[in-house]
Amino acid sequence: MIELDFNNILYAVLGPVHSISDGELNNTIANNAHICAEIQEERQQGKHPWMDLAERGIEDILGLARSKAKRWENFLVLGIGGSALGTRTLLEALKPPFYNLLPAKERNGYPRLFVLDNIDSDETQALFKLINPQKTLFNVVSKSGETTETIASLLITLKLLKKHLGKKYTQNLIVTTDKDNGFLRRLVNKEGYLSFETPKGVEGRYSVLSPVALLPAAFIGIDIKRLLQGASILDQYIQKTAADKNPAYISALINFIFDTQKHKNILVIMPYSVKLKAFAEWFRQLYPESLGKRYNIDNKEVFAGPTVLNALGVTDQHSQIQLYNEGPNNKLIVFIEVEKDKDDMVIPASVKDDSALFLAGHSLHQLMLAEKSATEYALVKSRRPNYTIRLKELSEETIGALLYFWQLNTVYAGKLYRVNPYGQPGVDAGKRATFGLMGRKGFEKEIADISDTLTKDKHWIMRI
Amino acid sequence: MIELDFNNILYAVLGPVHSISDGELNNTIANNAHICAEIQEERQQGKHPWMDLAERGIEDILGLARSKAKRWENFLVLGIGGSALGTRTLLEALKPPFYNLLPAKERNGYPRLFVLDNIDSDETQALFKLINPQKTLFNVVSKSGETTETIASLLITLKLLKKHLGKKYTQNLIVTTDKDNGFLRRLVNKEGYLSFETPKGVEGRYSVLSPVALLPAAFIGIDIKRLLQGASILDQYIQKTAADKNPAYISALINFIFDTQKHKNILVIMPYSVKLKAFAEWFRQLYPESLGKRYNIDNKEVFAGPTVLNALGVTDQHSQIQLYNEGPNNKLIVFIEVEKDKDDMVIPASVKDDSALFLAGHSLHQLMLAEKSATEYALVKSRRPNYTIRLKELSEETIGALLYFWQLNTVYAGKLYRVNPYGQPGVDAGKRATFGLMGRKGFEKEIADISDTLTKDKHWIMRI
């Protein structure tokens, strides 16, 4: 299902300094192996509830999607960050490109899927003009039920829906939020909207296998059962595998070593598939938000965490590779490759010219894989460490496994960095400041502190 | 038109270590001021031909677009890297979001615009199924006329067009390439396609103000005259401004100082506007591909160049800000803010609840600007340097100015890093390797070297 090729990080391939030797790698694997058992134990204690998502029942989601999905022209998610990126990932990976441009028939009658994950007025205006509110099912997603941006979008939506639908407007809303707490749950209890629960203890960036993303996915006909099966297969494989054969642990360890001991503080994730572009953005939240922490678990100030850079093959060869090959050797590059493409196209011999003829008869996918190998080769020549994750194909199963793999990797990495992979204490100051600036009661102190902090003697302003 | 606020990089605001003092900044500005005059002089010698693009005639483009644009249902660009990102930038910044989903009437009769900048078979299949070839104008763009990916897409396109249109197929093609050299020019000369010239000496990443992006832009009704006027206003302002008042020079200098002397080797570009998302991707090519160089102009090995990370406000506050605030202090963050929004929306008081009511009566754009200030404030609290570029509004003029500003900044930065901001020697090895792997004659040596380099004893492969 998944193959991992770690060879291009080795001393034998790259030479000294920017590499790791077999001996060093084997030692480090052995020395840290205990973290696999620790996490396993913590899981039994309920400390990693996202790990069990693949085993939860999804009959309610499937039942609803089966009976209702095809009634809607649009399914519109209001959510941001972890409430949006999982859904985007599944849409892009498992439905055809340009999905929303396809006529209903080619969507097999399933609705278009939009994700509004910003409060940009241009975008919001354009989207609300584009859709017919009567034919749109709005899915409001927020674990806390208190996300400012999502509430702002919801307030606009409610006004629109009431205007077009009167009292029946509640039928066009589904809320996904915590079972007990928060504004959205209060609203559900008061207004009687249909709702789903975000699983307790599962944060946004670990919630892709919960109703947060499964509900939208099911509504556009993605086989979420197979998605969970893929995750489950990976989970079971890891559980019965020794640490030194555990690829999620080993890749976390490699990422950690190259960041903390080999001066590669940037982790590039570069899939060679347009369908995995959103996946790379999902990962760009998962890893940095989990590992980018000021304090470690011993309460020591560490300012830890790799910076993730997402790129797309082959497109970004024409944008990023100059820097990766010739700039500072401060990156570890992780490629994702898809072995087979069901829908491959042959390049025809339309022009008789040496600049074109060598391509003829090859397929686009062959060309893509050749370019990836060529990039890998050029990077090795420049002594830039990289490794490859190879999916057999793009399917519900392999995507489920891939998502589970990286979440697991993130929790292993948390152990290695000795940081808590959950929580995001570093966004609190900004949230409170927004409340202050928007005039929310109880946040008056923030306004004073903001003007103290930001406006001391603004003399470095230039105008054109 | 543009305002630059550099205050959040100062010692007085941030305290020691991660900042620069007024004195240090003023000294460095004075000490390097000569580069402004140097570049001016080089420009007279014809060494920076892109700088004069805003003054070139565009009557041919305007004439063609005026008479032909509305005849087409789709305008499809085949191009990659610098041949794609400028076009994407103009489309997203200056047309409404979801442009391709709008009915023809709301597009004022202009065609949809697609940019195929990958060789992904899923994407290519889906796109070619989506469009009616007879109603699609294909614009093949490559400065060298030899770009492998673009040629592959063209070969597929030619087969499709000939099948659907027979001999008339040439009417559906416009080629933008070098006047004299390359496969595409040979093809134009042989087949008689309509063509435009890429200006001599202007590389892809500096070509947004040339036919490369202006032709597609004109075909979807963007006022390219005003775009060039915006660039021209900025150009003229800079030409008559002393170095110590030149914001393009000063921002280049700040970026340089923080990368090379303050350990901020990551430059984050974070617009607070969905419409500037593609702009950030354009910049992510421009800066790293120009400055990411192994050798400097004295032929000394330097491995220079900042790594650019693109982010989007407010969305990525829920993905990136945890890392920016609490991770390693290795970033300089550049915000782009838009002062006014023509199409702003008021947040209504749809629900009477303290979690929602404080938002009511404010507009979405106010909320966005408040969140940006709040983020800025939180970063300063964590002593993370950042500065803001503020556009009065999003218009052809301000976008033209912004693009020109950053290209100029890049050339100044080249001087400071002492690297050639043109050329991309680091991508050559990969290109040659691709030729080898695809069996092109004359590249047999590459295959041998690839297998030597990549396949030594592949023992670190794991499978799930």
Short description:
The structure is a homodimer of 464-residue chains. With 464 residues, chain A is an alpha/beta fold.
Main features:
homodimer; 464 residues; alpha/beta; Rossmann fold; 2 domains; 5-stranded mixed β-sheet; 5-stranded parallel β-sheet; 18 helices; globular
Quickly give the structural class of chain A. alpha/beta
Largest interface: A-B, 162 and 163 residues
Rg calculated over all Cα atoms of chain A: 24 Å
> How far apart are the termini of chain A?
56 Å
Strand content of the residues of chain A, in percent?
A: 5-15%
Count of extended strands of chain A: 11
Oligomer: homodimer
Tally of contiguous helical segments of chain A: 18
Overall morphology of chain A: globular
Strand line-up in the sheet with most strands of chain A: 1-10-9-7-8
Total domains of chain A, how many? 2
Task: Give the H and E element order of chain A.
Answer: EHHHHEHEHEHEHEHHHEHEHEHHEHHHE
**Average pLDDT across residues of chain A?**
97
Can you tell me the CATH topology of the largest domain in chain A?
A: Rossmann fold
CATH architecture of the largest domain in chain A: 3-Layer(aba) Sandwich
**Uncertain regions of chain A: pLDDT < 50 for 5+ in a row?**
none
